[in-house]
Amino acid sequence: MAYTEEELKKELETKEYEYGFVTDIESDTFPVGLNEGIVKAISKRKEEPEWMTDWRLKAFKSWQEMEEPKWANVKYPKPDFQKISYYSAPKGKDKYNSLDEVDPELLKTFEKLGISINEQKKLTGVAIDIVVDSVSVATTFKETLSKKGIIFCSISEAIKNHPDLVKKYIGSVVPQKDNFYATLNSAVFSDGSFCYIPKGVRCPMELSTYFRINQAGTGQFERTLVIADKDSYVSYLEGCTAPSRDENQLHAAVVELVALDGAEIKYSTVQNWFPGNKNGKGGVFNFVTKRGICHTNSKISWTQVETGSAVTWKYPSCILKGDNSIGEFYSIAVTNNYQQADTGTKMIHIGKNTKSTILSKGISAGKSQNSYRGLVQINAKAENARNFSQCDSLLMGNKCGAHTFPYIEVKNKTAIVEHEASTSKIGEDQIFYCNQRGIDTEQAIALIVNGFSKEVLNKLPMEFAVEAQKLLEISLEGSVG
Amino acid sequence: MLTIDNLHVSVEGKPILNGINLNVRAGEVHAIMGPNGSGKSTLSSVIAGNEAYEVTKGDIIYKNENIIELAAEERAQKGIFMSFQYPVEIPGITVTNFIKTAINSNLRARNEEKMPANIMLKKIREKAELLEIDSKFLSRSLNEGFSGGEKKRNEIFQMAMLEPSLSILDETDSGLDIDALKIVANGVNKLKNKNNAVILITHYQRLLDHIVPDYVHVLHEGRIVKSGGKELAHELEEKGYDWIK
To answer: How many A/B residue pairs have CB atoms within 8 Å?
Structure first.
C-alpha cells in the first residue's frame, strides 16, 4: 500500500515521539523531521551543556514563527523542513577501500585540480593509514598553534572546552532571530569551526591546509565562529576546491567573525558544492549567513569564489562599529547551466572614518541567473565614511542573465559613496583572436574569465588562488559550442 | 607552401570572393593590394579559418594538406599566423601571459613539453628587443588602451614569438606613423628566411618600400585581376586602382 505524504509524515512524527530521542541513538543519521525532541537530541548527542541546549531551543521556538524570505532573485521549490534529517555523523558518508571504487569522473576532476592522492582519499572517504603525511602535518600544525595560544578546533569541542568564549560571542554578530535560515542553523547546527587568536598574536600560517584535511564530512548546518582579540591577525580559508558530491539538498551555514580593536581577519571561501546536472536537476541549496563585526581600528576582508550550488543566497557582511574600521568584500560568482546565485554584501557604517570596498565579479553562462545584491548603509554618526563599490558582469551566450541590485542608504552628509558597474560579453572576435594564436576555445574562455576575475583572484592567498583559477576553468567547461 | 585553388567565399549568402587562385612558395613575400571592399581582409580571415565566412567552392592547400575543414586553432598550430587589422583587447591578461599560453598551446598540440620559464623569458626579452618593445609594455593587459602603433607592434611581437611558417599581415601598416612602420617592417624582415613565407595585405604601397615583395597581386571584386613583380605596386601608386578595373 502506498502511503500518502501526509500519512508518511504523521507516522514519522509519531515514531520520533515514540522513541523520544533522548536516549542513545544507534544510527548515524537521525530520521527526518524537526521538532523540539530532535533539537534536544542533537544537543545531547553532542554532549552539550545545558546552556547550549537552551540556546538551541530558544532559536527553534523563534524559527517556528518565522517565514522563508522571498526577496531574493532565485526560484526554487520550497524545501520541506519535515523531510530533512537534521543530524548525520560524518561517518555516514560512503566508505571505500581504495580509490578504484570511487567515481572516475570525480577523480578526473581531482587530477585537474592537482589534489594529492592522500587528499583525494580523504575527500572521497577512502580509508587511510595512520602514517599518512596529512595526519602528522595536522599534528605539527596543532602544536605550532597552541604554542601561540591560538585555539582552533571544532565548535563542538569549543562548547565543551571554551564555554566562556563561545557563550560570550555566539549569536553576538548573527543573532538567533536574524533571519529564517540563520535561526534554523542556531537550532540545529551540526558542527563547524571555532578559532580564537589571542591579543597581539599574528597567526603564523593560513588556517587552510589544516582545515582542508578536516573538511571532508562537515555537516549540512555548519557554524563557524572566529574571534580575533585586540591587535591580532588571522587569515582563514574556508572550503575546498575539490568538488563535493554531497547530495544534501539544503545547506544553511552561519559564520560569525569578531575583530576586536586593532585586529584583522581575512576570510577566504571557495564554494564548490554540487550545482545540479546540465538539465538543472539536483544540486545544493545554499543559504548562508556570514557577518563580521569590526571594532575600533580593525579590519575584516571577505574574499569568495562561488562556483557551486544550484541556488546560492549569501551576503558576507561587515558591521563597521568601531571608528576607523575597514570592511572589504571581494567576490567572484560563477553560474552555469541552470544555477542561480543571489550574492553580495552589506557594509554597515556606524563608526567614524570607516571605509569599505566592494568588488564583485559575476560570470554567467548557460541558462543561469547571477545577481549581485549589496547594501551600503552610512549611519547618522558615521562621519567621513567612505565606500567604493564596483560590480562587473561577464555574460557568455544569449540565454543567461546578470542582475545588479545596489542599495545605498546615506544618513550622514560627509559620506563619500561611489558605485561603478559594467556588463560585458565574451565576444566571438576575442575567441577567434585566441584561436588564431593556437589557443582552443575552452582555453580561450578560461583565459578571458581569468583576466576578468584577476583583481579578486589576487586577493586570495597564493596557493588557494591557483586552485581557484583552475576551478573557474572547470566550472565553465562545456559552456560554449 | 600555400596553394589557393578557385576559392569562392560568401558572408551571409553574399559572395565576396569569386575564384581566387594563388600560389605561395617558401621564402617568398606576396603583396595583395586592392581598393576597399575588394575582399582583401576576407581572404586573410578565410585562410586563418574564421568561421564567419563560408567557403562555397575551392580549396586551400597548405603544406600539401587541404585545410578547408580545419578549425582556426588547428591551422594556427600548423604554423599559420595572422596579424590582425584590429587586434582585440583581453582585459586582465598580460601580453606575457597571453603569449606564454599561446606558445604552450601550440607545443601541447604537437605533443611537446611546455617551454621552461627561463627559456620563455629569454625568448620574450630577445624578441621584444628586436621590435624595440619596452619591458613595461609586456606586463600590460593585452591590447587594452594600446595605441594603434602599439597594437601592431604587439602583433609582430607575437609573430616573432610563434615563428610561423606562413604569416598573413592584414593591413599592418594602417594606423602606424613612419617610425613605427619602420620598426615593424624591420622586424618582419629580420624574421624572414628561406623556410617561411609572408602575405602582405595592404591598400597602400608605402609598406612595400620597407618590406619588398616578390610578387604583387591586385584584388578587385573578389578576383585577382593582375599579378606582377614589385614594380606593379609603384604603378598602382601612380595610377590608382581605376586603370586595372
So the answer is: 74
The last residue of one of the domains, among A410, A428, A446, is A428
Contacts of A455 in chain B (CB under 8 A): 92
Reduced to 3 states, what is the DSSP secondary structure of residue B107?
helix
Within 8 A of A427 by CB-CB distance, chain B residues are 88
Higher pLDDT, B116 or A215: B116
Within an 8 Å CB–CB cutoff, is residue A452 touching chain B? yes
Q: Evaluate whether residue B56 is within a structural domain.
A: yes
Q: What is the mean pLDDT of residues B126-149?
A: 91
What gap in Å lies between CA A292 and CA A260, rounded to an integer?
11
Q: What is the CATH number of the domain that holds B147?
A: 3.40.50.300
pTM score: 0.80
Number of domains, chain B:
1
User: What are the two backbone dihedrals, phi and then psi, of residue A332, each rounded to the nearest 5 degrees?
Assistant: -120, 125
Q: What distance in Å separates the CA atoms of residue A54 and residue B177, rounded to the nearest whole number?
A: 79
Last residue of a domain, one of A66, A92, A118: A92
A450 and B CB contact within 8 Å? yes
State yes or no: pLDDT of A107 exceeds 70: no
Alpha helices per DSSP H over chain B: 40-48, 72-77, 95-109, 117-130, 135-138, 148-162, 178-191, 231-239
Nearest chain A Cα to B77, which residue? A438
Contacts of B72 in chain A (CB under 8 A): 432, 435-436
What 8-state DSSP symbol labels residue B89? P
Q: Which domain holds residue A137?
A: 103-428
Strand B215-220 to B223-228 pairing = antiparallel
* Cα A464 to Cα A209: distance, rounded to the nearest angstrom: 10
Q: Answer whether A338's CB lies under 8 Å from A368's CB.
A: yes
Mean pLDDT within A80-108? 63
Strands A369-378 and A326-335: unpaired
Between A434, A438, A455, which is nearest B109 by CB?
A: A438
How confident is the model over A233-275, as pLDDT tens digits? 999 888 655 555 555 577 888 999 999 999 999 999 888 777 7
Segment A51-61, tens digit of pLDDT: 999 999 999 99
| Alpha-carbon gap, residue B241 to B231, rounded angstroms | 14
The alpha carbon of residue A63 and the mean position of all alpha carbons in its chain are separated, in whole angstroms, by: 21
Alpha carbon dihedral A132, A133, A136, A137, in 10-degree steps, equals -150
> Cell triple for residue B71?
578549425
Q: Where are the beta strands (DSSP E) in A147-282?
A: 151-154, 193-197, 223-228, 233-239, 250-251, 254-259, 264-271
Between strands A250-251 and A254-259, the pairing is unpaired
Is B245 domain-assigned?
Answer: no
At residue A383, φ and ψ (nearest 5 deg) are: -65, 145
What is the average pLDDT across A208-222? 51
Helix/strand number for chain B, H first, E second: 8, 12
- Rounded Cα distance between A476 and A113, Å, is 14
Non-local (6+) Cβ contacts of A452 within 8 A are: A361, A363, A392, A394, A424, B91, B92
Which tens digits make up the pLDDT trace of A173-211?
Answer: 999 899 999 999 999 888 788 999 999 999 988 786 444
Distance from CA of B243 to the nearest CA of A (A): 36
Torsion sign, CA atoms A39, A45, A50, A51: negative
Q: Is the same domain home to A84 and A111?
A: no
* Nearest-Cα residue of chain B relative to residue A457: B92
Distance from CA of A193 to the nearest CA of B (A): 35
pLDDT of residue A419: 93
